[in-house]
Amino acid sequence: MNPKEEKVKIITEEFIENDEDANVGKRKKNSKVQRQPRKKQPPTTGPDKMMLEESHLGNQQELVQDEPQTRLLSVTARRGPRSLPPIPSASRTGFAEFSMRERMREKLQAARSKAESALLQEIPTPRPQRLRSPTVKELETEFGTESGKEVGSTQQEDDTQSYARVKFHVSARKIKSKPQVPPGFPSAEEAYNFFTFTFDPEPEEAEEKPKHGDGTHQEEEEGEEEPPTEEGANRMDEEELLHGKDAEDFLLGLDHTADEFLAVRPAHYESVHVRLQREKEMLFIPSRLTVPTYKKLPENVQPRFLEDEGLYIGERPEVARTNQNIMENRLLTQESGRRWFGDDGRILALPNPIKPFPSRPPVFMQEQSIKAELETLYKKAVKYVHRSQHMIGSGDPAGNFQLDIDISGLIFTHHPCFSREHVLAAKLAQLYDQYLARHQRNKAKFLTDKLQALRNAVQTGLNPEKPHQSLDTIQKTINEYKSEIRQTRKLRDAEQERDRTLLKTIIKVWKEMKSLREFQRFTNTPLKLVLRKEKVDQKTDEEAYEAEIQAEISELLEEHTEEYEQKMEEYRTSYQQWKAWKKAQRAKKKKKKQATEEHPEEETEEPYPEEDPVKPSPPEPTDRAAVEQQVRERAAQSRRRPGEPTLLPELSLAGSVTPNDQCPRAEVWRREDVKRRSVYLKVLFNNKEVSRTVSRQLGTDFRVHFGQIFNLQIFNWPESLTLQVYETVGHSSPTLLAEVFLPIPETTIVTGRAPIEEVEFSSNQHVTLDHEGVGSGVPFSFEADGSNQLILMTSGKVSHSVAWAIGENGIPLIPPLSQQNIGFRSALKRADAISSIGTSGVTDMKKLAKWAAESKLDPNDPNNAPLMQLISVATSGESYVPDFFRLEQLQQEFNFVSDEELNRSKRFRLLHLRSQQVPEFRNYKQIPVYDREIMEKVFQDYEKRLRDRNVIETKDHIDTHRAVVAKYLQQVRESVINRFLIAKQHFLLADLVVEEEVPNISILGLNLFKLAEQKRPLRPRRKGRKKVTAQNLSDGDIRLLVNIIRAYDLPVRKPTASKFQQPSRSSRTFREKHAASPDTRSPTHSADYPLGQVLVRPFVEVSFQRTICHTTTAEGPNPSWNEELELPFRAPNGDYSTASLQSVKDVVFINIFDEVLYDVLEDDRERGNGIHTRIERHWLGCVKIPFSTIYFQARIDGTFKIDIPPVLLGYSKEQNMIIERDFDSVRSLSEGSYITLFITIEPQLVPGESVREKFDSQEDEKLLQATEKFQAECALKFPKRQCLATVIDISGKTVFITRYLKPLNPPQELLNIYPNNPQATAELVARYVSLIPFLPDTVSFAGLCDLWSTSDQFLDLLAGDEEEHAVLLCNYFLFLGKKAWLVMGNAIPEGPTAYVLTWEKSHYLIWNPCSGNFYGQFDTFCPLKNVGCLIGPDNIWFNIQQYDSPLRINFDVTKHKLWKSFFSRSLPYPGLSSVQPEELIYQNTDKAAAAELQDRIEKILKEKIMDWRPRHLTRWNRYCTSTLRHFLPLLESSQGEDIEDDHRAELLKQLGDYRFSGFPLHMPYSEVKPLIDAVYSTGVHNIDVPNVEFALAVYIHPYPKNVLSVWIYVASLIRNR
Amino acid sequence: MAAAGPSVFLLMVNGQVESAQFPEFDNLYCKYCFVYGQDWAPTAGLEEGISQITSKSRDACQALVWNFPIDITFKSTNPFGWPQIVLSVYGPDVFGNDVVRGYGAVHVPFSPGRHKRTIPMFVPESTSKLQKFTSWFMGRRPEYTDPKVVAQGEGREVTRVRSQGFVTLFFNVVTKDMRKLGYNSRPADTQSDPGPSMPQGTPG
Fold first, then answer.
1. Cβ–Cβ of B181/A999 closer than 8 Å?
2. Chain A positions in Cβ-Cβ contact with residue B137 (cut-off 8 Å)
3. pLDDT tens string A1191-1250
4. Basic and acidic residues bias: where (chain A) (predicted)?
5. In B, residues 149-178, which contact A (CB 8 Å cutoff)?
6. Across the interface, do A998 and B131 touch by the CB < 8 Å criterion?
7. First to last CA, chain B
8. Which strands sit side by side in the sheet containing B64-76, from one edge to the other?
């Protein structure tokens, strides 16, 4: 840089300095710039100069880039001491740390003094600042900043000082040329070495160099007289060298040599100082000191405190002072940082945004306060603004209200496009309108008339024609009249004057207009004023005028005289006073005269000081002429002169407007402008635009005709109705001219009645036009010279009418005002409802309605609209307030039909009953669509059942007791079913999902073993069939398979050894001929039976649900059929659900018949040619198996004892005959016939499961737990063996089973029969028990669970299953002193059942409680097949023997290895009390009732048999019947034993002529139906021999407690010929 | 009676069990059956069916297509118990045992027209991990005792199921006399076109 360049730079800098902001930022860079102006300052340059000189002297500080400024500014005062130390220090560097420390101390001192001086210096500085030129000030700002920095740095003064030192060395070394070798330094100068070495790597030095060079350049440039750069640099080098030399010299002798050999380099270490120094270069640490205000403000600006000026300044956010300072300092160093400062020199800040109070309620920690927080505060409901208030709606069915807005037109009274003439025309029109209005009212005339009338009144009042009136009153009224006259006259005069002036103005305006038209030579308006003169009769007019004037004059005179008189009065009084005073005066005078004579001067003087009442002048009498003059003048002014014609102005639009082509251009433009303009109106309802008129062009007369009617169907209460006037110029967007607010019409105003009203509007728009149009809001003048300016605003009138519409039926569509309080009130006020019914009535709607009815309001009167609305609401009851709260208030809405109607509907009733699972309808399918298709009889059964619920039906039961029992059972069943239906809802996973159980090792192994199994084993095993769930079955799906295998020991025909069989050859049985029999008894027949006689030809007939199947006929007493019979099963009501199947009561009857062939050939001669035989079948016996057993057992497989009647005429057991059979020995033990059967259901049905529900119990919890444990243990060992510990009693509670066992007394009469034969007694007792009807629980309780009733309950119910029978029998045996146990096990055909085991001295007997039979332990035909457990009165023993067949087990319960006992040593028997009663009480059965029942049953059965033979005649053999009837009691007494022969003999004796076939049936009595079924199953009625006769006898033997034993003897007789 | 108007309405359903999406399984066949209320009776067609075995298509969608037709007509007096189609899908597992792959049910659409139904299929889950393993190993997965269980709500709370895939069905539904009996099952958009005759009496 050469000086020239530099100069340019200076100039530029100076220029830049004007731009302060730019400068501030560049401060550091342009240190020279700061310096240069300094030189120019004459007063302050001194120190600066010295500084500069100092730098020349080689003071190192000048080279330091940052430091100089500080020094520059602050050190001025003691420059000397400061500048000096470095040299010694430099020279003394050789001295170790000591010297350094010394120097530091010095430095510190220097710094302190410097700081002091800086402070001192700072104080005076601000003053001159403001006076300086901008450039100077700029510098000063800098200066100030620097000083601030200086202050901040004083704390670390010594540091900075040392920095300075360091810095010097550093920079000096850097500037030094490379030859400078650092290692040459003596080691003592470690510090220096340090710095020099560690400071910068070699390459950086090179980089640094130019920078420093630059720095020096600057240095040089600053001082103009400074030597060139090289010089400076050289000098620096020299200095440095010198410096170095000093050091070297100092250390020369010590380390020099070592240095040469060993390149010992000190460890790289960057000194803290150096680092700080460098940081200082890089980093900017803003000072924390306060920045003086002037630095923050533009030059020459005083800080302005807005707050002091009264302006509001928000509270500044709180910032720590130091932070603020730092920020300010930072900002100042920034470019354009100053704009951050406000007028007051502080950083701009928004008001503190933090609210003075927390907006969230404080959360209190205490619970109690939380409660307080949650406290509800009552706030009064805020009334909803009726803006969005909906109109009633509910009251009025129509609900629509209509507002008709008729906008007929728009007239502008002023418009920017008005020409001057238009303005005048508008004015004229306005005046004319006024005139017309005035004329219409004609107030002047009215007042004149009034005046006249008053005058007349006064005159008549003066007439003394009214004597009755007192004079006083007349006078008074006259006076009043007079004052009235005076008033009226004044008014009239004013009116007249106004009229006149108006007329004058009109004329004047018209004249102006005319002159304007003349002046502008065209007419714009068709306006034309015509003054019509009305001629008046001069004379009369004058007379009237005169009379008027005279009257007025006289009145005035009168007034004046009155006034005069008044004044005279006043005068008189005052005169009187005056006189009095005068008198006194005179008296005084007299005195004074006397005194004057003595003192003459005094006399005159005296009166003056006294108040001298002026002598009142009498009022002047009114001057008539003057009054007249006055009146006349006034009349002339305000009134038409007499004779002058009346002027009637008439404004017409008859004038012609000058056509465009004759107008000047400005006017043409105006007219064109007008044409371009169009106007439309928007209709705003509640501030919402609802419609708008069509856009109409502005006429030349500035009238717009719309003529549109808007019908507003409104729902919201009308709040505001606004019209907005829009004007469109050309194609520009419309501008809103003005808004016109229309009043909401009163409810009285309906369409048709509404008058057209005009609403004025005006706009404040300013329009200046460049044509003849006068514009709007701008002054214009009519005068040529522009005086008399007028400013007119756009204004106009909208003519419209708003009214409520009238509906079709003439009812005004007015919204009721009830919702609006004010409206309501006003309406009420109008109708005066409150006054008539009192305020309370307003709230009481009914009262109000009553009042309305009484007062006969016109409902069509719009006045009453709100009231009528209210009343209609009140009377219709819709708004009546119910006094209850409805939870589902919408329920009624959804009820599409009333409940009664719903109940009446047969279809819904049916649906309802079905969904309730009422048995009759549970499976009702396809409920018809229509009521009419549903037969009434559908419900009959159900209704009957409901009706009969409490009525005991005796028809079916005959016996009343049983009827009661049946009822009771029914009820128990229902309750139990209901109970279990709920329990059934609980599903287990197993019910829904089939899942393999986790196999244990054994099963797994078995399965593995199975893999190796042969596919077709030699001995195949029966595989379980797949079970079918009952739900998806239908009729015909289920079949009952009965496999009849064989039978044993059937009775055989007894050869009829009777006398009458011999002669009747024809009666020989067919079989007898063929049956080869070695019958020794009937040798006589041996001829007839050449071959071995067939003893019997049995076949089996199975009947189930009235379906009958039979096998083929086999032969012999031990036939083998091996036939499978298939019978369809039909579930009741087609319901194949488990519950339904369980309750099937049907029984499978397996009847064994003997087929007998009779030769019916009448003629022996034909014997050779043909065979005529008749087949007869003789019933041998039957087996009954209830379906429920089959259902639960799934299959029944075994040999059953055939129920053979005790007396089977013509048949006998053939044990004597077939002795050779092997099993005779076995059979001999139990007499009877047997049949082997296999019965199953195809497909297999899943039996219903017992209820899993746990029942509550009164047993001890420990006992229950023990029970569970016991059962679990038993089940684990022998899962198939029945183990029972607890049972459920009839009330549904769990009871421990041993509680049921207790000795109970059998009926005494049974004991009395065989007092000495316990065995016989036991049999009798067993028979008694077996006579109690059997009713399986599964049937009665729908297979849900086994209920155990106690013995007394059982006897009361007279129905029960095996358990009850067994319990009762066991109890009886216990009473009889036997050792008896309950045996729980499996039997055929019952399945799981209960038997009774007794110990009879040497052997055990097994009793079947249901049949009364007993078996020895080793009886092969014993139906009990498995024994699960034994139950005694005090313990339970579970069978843990290997086998469970009674044949193979030991019943000795004392052996613990064989029987696991429940109560043992560990759990002793707690002595459980029995649930059984103490004693059974037996009532003797009514014998008469039994006899009656007997007769009835006989009758019923006879009828039935006749019914079953519809095609044949049924004859009853009475003789035989009576014989049988006699015979039956014998059977009962002998229990069907040992009487056969006697009976037979007797029968033979009595009925010799008849072939007799018949048998007695014995059953316990429960109902009639089983009896009928039993009779039916024997097939007695099937005989269709023409001459057959029947005999039927019934015998009922009553046992105590209503146990009835029924005997039925049925026989068919065929007469032998 | 017949002159007075129909006493039953008819619902004819035909369509097909079109395809299935079982991402993990192949070679599946399906069974379908209908479950309907007491007032319903099938008058024609098959109530149950079992399809052929289908393999996955080779394309990206890997659909199992059966196109197994359904054709059945019901008569009813009461919309209660509207028929549901119950689907159960079976297929071989790793060991070749036929196991169930999904159960699903959907109501027959009640508005006339063509309908597409995609039924998510699920299977009951094993009760334990061990059972899961053994059932997998033995090829005896848990199954419903009756597939019709899935058409009922009763007892479902005891089961846990896992979803397996989807079956897509198409139904073409034709109803007769429903409007006459007062049941309007048309979709809203075709409501405007009036039926042949207005209901002559309210049912029921």
1. no
2. none
3. 777 778 888 888 887 777 777 765 444 444 444 444 444 467 888 888 888 777 766 555
4. 208-218, 621-636
5. 149, 154-159
6. yes
7. 15
8. B40-45, B64-76, B9-21, B161-176, B113-124, B98-107, B84-92, B29-35, B48-50
Q: Which amino acid is at A419?
A: S
Q: How confident is the model at residue A977 (pLDDT cuts 50, 70, 90)?
A: low
- The CA distance from B105 to B35, in Å, is 9
How far apart CA A646 and CA A382 sit, in angstroms, is: 66
Q: Please tell me the predicted confidence (pLDDT) of residue A614.
A: 63
Q: Is B78 on the interface with A (CB under 8 A)?
A: yes
Given this model, what pLDDT does residue A643 score? 65
Structure ipTM: 0.81
Helices (H), A1012-1167: 1070-1074, 1138-1142
Q: Name the residue among A905, A928, A1032 with its Cβ closest to that of B77.
A: A928
Is residue A551 predicted with pLDDT exceeding 60?
yes
Q: By CA distance, what is A907's nearest residue in B? A: B204
d(CA A549, CA A1524): 158
CA-based nearest distance B134→chain A, Å: 7
Cα(A192)–Cα(A171) distance, integer angstroms: 12
Residue A1155 has pLDDT above 50, yes or no: yes
Asked whether the beta carbons of residue A929 and residue B78 sit closer than 8 angstroms, the reply is yes
DSSP state of A1008: H
**pTM above 0.90?**
no
Closest to A992 (Cβ–Cβ): which among B4, B41, B155?
A: B155
Closest CA to A1346 of A1414, A1408, A1282: A1282
Cα three-residue angle A803-A808-A814, rounded to 5 degrees: 40
Q: Nearest C-alpha of chain B: how many angstroms from A924? A: 7
Query: What's the CA gap between A1394 and A1365, in Å, rounded?
Result: 8
Strand partners, A1240: A1041, A1195
Contact check, Cβ <8 Å, B155/A929? no
Cβ neighbour number for residue A1318 with a 10 Å cutoff:
14
CA A1262 to chain centre: 51
Given the DSSP bridges, would you call strands B98-107 and B64-76 parallel, antiparallel or unpaired? Answer: unpaired
Nearest to A1046, CA basis, from A1127, A1100, A1101 = A1100
Entry field: residues in chain B: 204
Residue whose structure tokens are 């207009």: A513
Searching chain A, which residue's CA lies closest to the CA of residue B134? A998
Interchain pair B78, A927: CB under 8 A: yes
d(CA A1075, CA A1155): 13
> Which stretch of A68-72, A348-352, A1599-1603, B6-10 has the lowest confidence by average pLDDT?
A68-72
For an interface test with A, the pick among B1, B8, B39, B97 (most A C-beta atoms closer than 10 Å) comes out as B39
Nearest chain B CA: its distance from A998 CA (Å) = 6
Residue of B7, B8, B38, B47 to mutate for A, most A C-beta atoms under 10 A: B38
Instruction: List CB contacts of A1112: < 8 A, sequence separation 6 or more.
Output: A1099, A1121, A1123
pLDDT lower than 70: segments of chain B = 1-4, 187-204
Instruction: Name chain B contacts of A929, Cβ cutoff 8 Å.
Output: 6-9, 77-78, 181, 203-204
Tallying the residues shown for chain A, one arrives at 1617
- What residues in chain A have their Cβ under 8 A from chain B's Cβ atoms? 905, 907-908, 911, 914, 923-933, 985, 987-989, 991-999, 1029, 1031-1032
CA distance A524 to A1524: 146
Give the burial string for A842-868 (b: 16+ CB within 10 Å, else e).
beebebbbbbbeeeebeeeebbbbbbb
